[in-house]
């Protein structure tokens, strides 16, 4: 059992590590979390840790950010830029004038421009020294992108990708374009991370099917494989599927993989479930304090290893 004193000491160590790294790396020091609500989960964890050590903080949001804060004593800014797919997307409906997609029978869906970054973070590259990206959950979201009623329709160079491709192929295309976009624009001294997929722990169906996560203990290694093995093709299989795409596309890039998946797969007991009056069990996001604090410990360890090499 971790004591309150041990927790406070750990928070101080993490906060001091972040600030000292900024000085050692000669950064103004601004870290941007770019991604879906699971990256917000990680951002909030880091904010709470830093604020527990130093409360001299003000709200300040870089362009496009959903939220952001500056710790005035250290000139340290952290911000969260919300983006579900990393790339621009929006509703698409068939034109009365017809077109390629219309000729194939499509009447409604979502247009996803795989080579155009979401406007919420496109300008973030000019400001942040450290970037932590994620994407994945929305690419496997049949409740949002119904493959029949509202499919994802991919566009490149302003034109539909023909023949239309499945979301897995669209994810690869989007990742390749966004990696190129970032690497061509970020300073060489900047530090780039891509966080692996955060696992879900739904049992008895997905969230919209009444799935739940009422466990009070972590999973055993055998249970982890039953939950997440790609060969089982279960409700929560997306975590390892997304990681396969990330590892393939990021190979040879400037991005470092922040691998939080394996450690998190065991923690079926660490979700908020119906806390806060939710109508459905939340088996995707994480309680705080919790596993996302450990993600940030790993993040800081990576930064320390970079500092040791310079």
Automatic annotation (TrEMBL):
<dbReference type="InterPro" id="IPR029962">
    <property type="entry name" value="TBL"/>
</dbReference>
<dbReference type="GO" id="GO:0005794">
    <property type="term" value="C:Golgi apparatus"/>
</dbReference>
<protein>
    <recommendedName>
        <fullName>Trichome birefringence-like C-terminal domain-containing protein</fullName>
    </recommendedName>
</protein>
<feature type="domain" description="Trichome birefringence-like C-terminal">
    <location>
        <begin position="32"/>
        <end position="301"/>
    </location>
</feature>
<dbReference type="GO" id="GO:0016413">
    <property type="term" value="F:O-acetyltransferase activity"/>
</dbReference>
<dbReference type="Pfam" id="PF13839">
    <property type="entry name" value="PC-Esterase"/>
</dbReference>
<comment type="similarity">
    <text>Belongs to the PC-esterase family. TBL subfamily.</text>
</comment>
<dbReference type="InterPro" id="IPR026057">
    <property type="entry name" value="TBL_C"/>
</dbReference>
């Amino acid at each position: 059992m971790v004591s309150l004193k041990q927790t406070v000491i750990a928070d101080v160590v993490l906060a001091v590590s972040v600030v000292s790294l900024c000085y050692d790396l000669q950064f103004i020091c601004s870290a941007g979390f770019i991604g879906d609500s699971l990256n917000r989960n990680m951002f909030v964890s880091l904010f709470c840790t830093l604020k527990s050590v130093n409360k001299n903080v003000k709200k300040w949001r870089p362009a496009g950010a959903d939220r952001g804060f500056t710790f005035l004593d250290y000139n340290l800014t952290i911000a969260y830029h919300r983006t579900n797919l990393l790339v621009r997307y929006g509703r698409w409906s068939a034109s009365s004038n017809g077109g390629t997609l219309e000729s194939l029978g499509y009447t409604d869906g979502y247009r996803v421009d795989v080579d155009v970054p979401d406007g919420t973070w496109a300008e973030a590259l000019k400001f942040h020294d450290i970037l932590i990206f994620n994407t994945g959950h929305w690419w496997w979201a049949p409740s949002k992108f119904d493959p029949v009623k509202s499919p994802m329709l991919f566009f490149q160079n302003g034109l539909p990708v023909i023949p239309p491709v499945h979301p897995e192929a669209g994810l690869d295309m989007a990742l390749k374009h966004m990696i190129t976009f970032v690497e061509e624009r970020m300073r060489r001294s900047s530090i780039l991370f891509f966080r692996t997929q955060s696992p879900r722990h739904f049992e008895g169906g997905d969230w919209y099917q009444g799935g739940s996560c009422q466990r009070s203990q972590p999973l055993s290694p055998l249970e982890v494989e039953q939950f997440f093995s790609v060969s089982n093709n279960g409700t929560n299989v997306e975590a390892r599927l997304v990681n396969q795409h990330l590892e393939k596309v990021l190979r040879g890039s400037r991005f470092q993989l922040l691998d939080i998946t394996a450690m998190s797969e065991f923690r079926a007991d660490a979700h908020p479930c119906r806390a806060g009056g939710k109508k459905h069990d939340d088996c995707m996001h994480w309680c705080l304090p919790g596993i996302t604090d450990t993600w940030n410990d790993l993040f800081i360890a990576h930064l320390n290893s970079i500092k040791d090499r310079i």
